[in-house]
Structures are given as C-alpha cells and as structure tokens.
Amino acid sequence: MLKAMIVDDERATREKLMEYVDWSSLRIEAAGEAKDGAEGLRLFGVLRPDIVLMDVRMPRMNGIECAAEIRKLDPNCKIIFLSGYTDKHYLKSAIQMQAIDYIEKPIDLGELHDVLTKTAALCEEERGKLELAAVRVKQELALTMASDRADLPAIKKRFESIGFSVSLNDVFRCVLLEFGGRPIFEGEGGADVVQADRITDIVNREFENASLPCVSGMLDGSRLIVHICGGAAEQTARIKAAIEGVQQTFGCADAGGNGMVTAGIGKSVRGAENIRKSFELARGALQLGFIRGFGSINAEETERTAEEFAGIEDIRQNLKRCYQEENLAAAIREIDGWIAQLAERPGKFRISSVKAALLSVMLHLSALAEESALPISGEWKKQELLWAERLNRGTLRDAAAFIKELLQTLFRQTGQKGISRKIRAAIEYIREHYGEDLSVVAIADRLEMGSTYLSTLFKKETGQALSEFIEAYRMEKAKELLKDDRLKMSEVAGSVGYRNANYFATVFKRSTGLYPSEYRRMFAR
Hints:
Elements: E1 2-7, H1 11-20, E2 28-34, H2 37-47, E3 51-55, H3 63-73, E4 78-83, H4 88-96, E5 101-104, H5 109-145, H6 152-161, E6 171-179, H7 190-209, E7 214-218, E8 223-229, H8 236-250, E9 261-265, E10 269-270, H9 275-287, H10 289-292, E11 297-299, H11 312-324, H12 328-344, H13 351-371, H14 377-393, H15 396-414, H16 421-433, H17 440-446, H18 451-462, H19 466-482, H20 489-495, H21 501-512, H22 516-523
Parallel strand pairs: 1-2, 1-3, 3-4, 4-5, 9-11
Antiparallel strand pairs: 6-8, 6-9, 6-10, 7-8
C-alpha cells in the first residue's frame, strides 16, 4: 500500500484531510501529519511516504523550501501543493519542484480525490518498473555469479545497485530448479522475457518468504538458478521447504501426482569465488532427477566421481537371446532388473552414460526389427533421433516404459507366423521403394536370391504373385494421393512408380474399375 503525509499549518485542514478523504478506496495509508515544513522534513525522513500533500505558506520552513529538501532525499516522491493563494511566484516554484498538482483552498474533496487517484496510479506504475528492473538485474547477477570466470568487483557493484547488502566473503549456496523437464517458454521474444521475469519473481518471493535472501535468473527455457546469500544458505531444511513452496505455487504435477518442479541443491561455500563449486554440485544433483523422477529434491554435499555405465553389451546380448527364443517375459524381466539396479544407487553412474545406455538398447531393438524385416522397422528408423530427445525430456521410469513398449511391438510383429524373414524383407523393401522402378530381379538381387526362387517362395507364403503385390500396393497408395485434388495426375503416377500417366490410368482402371479421374471426382477433398 502507498503512504501519504500531510504538511499544513492549519489544524482544521489537516483534520479534514485525515478524516474525510477516502484513503482506503485509494489504497493509500495516511501515515502522518506535520504542522510546518521543518517538522514535515523530519517526519519525511522517518516515514518515507510516496505522496506528500503540502501547504505552500507555513512558518519556519515554507512548502517550497521543504519540497526542495525532500527532492534531495527522494527524487521520485510525489508532491501535491495546497494553497489559498494564486501567487504566480509560488506556481512557478511548484512547477520547478515538479509537483504533481497545485490545489487551491478551500479544498474541493472531489478534485483532491481525482488528483490522488492519478497520483496513486503513477506511483504504482513507477514502482512496478523499479521492481521489474531489479528483477532483471538480479537475473543477470545470478548468471554472472555462476560463471567459471566470475568478475568479483562487478558482482559486488551489482549487489550494491539493487540495494542488496552482502559481503563477497559471506556464505553462498546454489539451487537449480527445472520445470517439468521441458521448456516453459522458447526463443528470445518479448513475451518470453516477461514470462521469465514472472517466474523469477515468484521464486524470489517464495525464498524470501522463507527468510532466504537470494538472487535468481533463468538459465534457459526450463531451468532457473537461485543463489542463496548469507548464513541462511546453510539451512538445508528451510531451503527444501522453500522449494516445496515453489512446487505448490506452480501447481505442476504429472498424472501420478508427482511435482514437476525438480530441484538440485549444491553445497554451501564461503566466498563468492567458490560459488561455481556450489553451482556444479547443484547441477549434478539436478541430474539425479532423471533417476528419482520429476518433483524430487536432490542435494549434493560432496563432490563424487560417478562411474561410466559399462554393462550395456551384456544387456543387449541378453535381449537378443530373449528375442531369438521368443521369450518376451524374460526380456521384460531383464529391463526391470536393470532399471531397479540404477534406481537403487542413483549417484553411482554418470547420468549421461545411463542415457547413452538406454538409447543404445532402443537402437538395438530397432536393429533387430530391421534384421527381421518387420513392418515397423522403417518407422522406427525415422524416429531414432526423436528417441534421444525423448530421453532428455523424460525420466528413467519413462524410458523403461518406452523400452518395454518397443519390446512388445517387436515380439508382436515377429509373432506373425507363416512368413519367412526373406519374404518379410521383400515386403518391407516394396513398402519403402514403391515409388521407384521395381522389378522381381531388382528385389531378388537386393535379397541375394534368385528371381525365380523369390517369385515361387513369395507366391507360396503369401498366396499372391510378387508382381501382383507390387501393383496392389501401388494402387492403394495412389488412392490416397488422388484424394488431394492439388496433385496433377502425372504427379500421382510418378509418386507410385509409373512414369507414363496413360499406362498408370490403364492399370488403375483394371485394378479398381474406375479411371483415376473418376475416382478423384468421387473422393476428392
């Protein structure tokens, strides 16, 4: 709430303003009153009001003189002059003092209310700008403090610029917060800057409400760094409570009810030159959220050397054996046992090596699907880069569930009995290359088989001639393309492997009973 002070040598005027102005509706506190400029100046030093209503002519020190002294103490204070005189000299002085307004006595309460409304709005606007500027300075300061080449004199200067009393020899502690493992904003746009300011301000307030003086700033789109300063940096329980407050404030939870704000707490260190050590420990602690799950609060008090995960080849070989033996249950047990081992000792292995091992297993299953010429193998190949991104935005539990989904799909498609691996490979090749010049000889060469043997085996296992299968598959793809009337007929023909549009039309008519143009008229969108 804003504060106002009244300075007037007329008691009746002071009482009238204190009693009859609707201060509460203006969200202003009438904090005090003084009977002359000298007394008003002393009271100003105590109250530090945002607004001063002041008579011009008073004994000992008049309003203009008092305003000049107030301006030295607080250039942003809003001054409203009150006077029963319309002396041009006083009006000119009021303008020089940058007064908000000049109200003549007897005071019209309606006029005064309008002036105070305008003044309060101006105060709130300026206060908001100052608070925002302080937040952004703190954000820059937070990033500077975590730098491996921190400029200590610059850090000291920035602390002073925001009125933050701290010694560079004090105790500091770094906390990293990650929001859901995925960006909450992206890019460099103005809207994203506002979002970063809002998030940083919320976190600052939660920590300060827990008596944890701090500066904070966004590291990137999903992570925020908090530096706790002073003796409170050693209060681990209080820090965890503040983090829980942040989790509750953002209200982020996954389907299982787990908090989606994950935290890493570094060790408290003495001296600003050691802040980087606390930051590194906080970063390592935050990575443990991959093992323990989103919403976990992880603290690292000591530096440790995590091992590289070295058992991945055994896991791949065991999964391959389970696949060859068609034992899905054993494959699932292999994954569950491995994940349980990782979860029991979250700090034993480097998180980067754990993620690399998980991705290696996913790629191994993709390779098995390709070797077996399963229909899903082509789609999996296209998704492998997305799998790596998925790992970086999920948890160990998410990765385990996804690997088991891949296993189930792999075993289910392999379970299609009656079709040999060679014929599955031929079918997959046709599905990937139907838009090219395909022939039985070319497919047989690809599979290192004789063309006559391939044709015979394909007919035996599928009940359909290989050339008929190619034609039927192309016609199904052509039907999909014909529904898009933006494509020329020649483009449709070329897309499904026919260089001659007339010949394509003949084949389509033979297959469907309609010419392509007739089919398009029926199904075009």
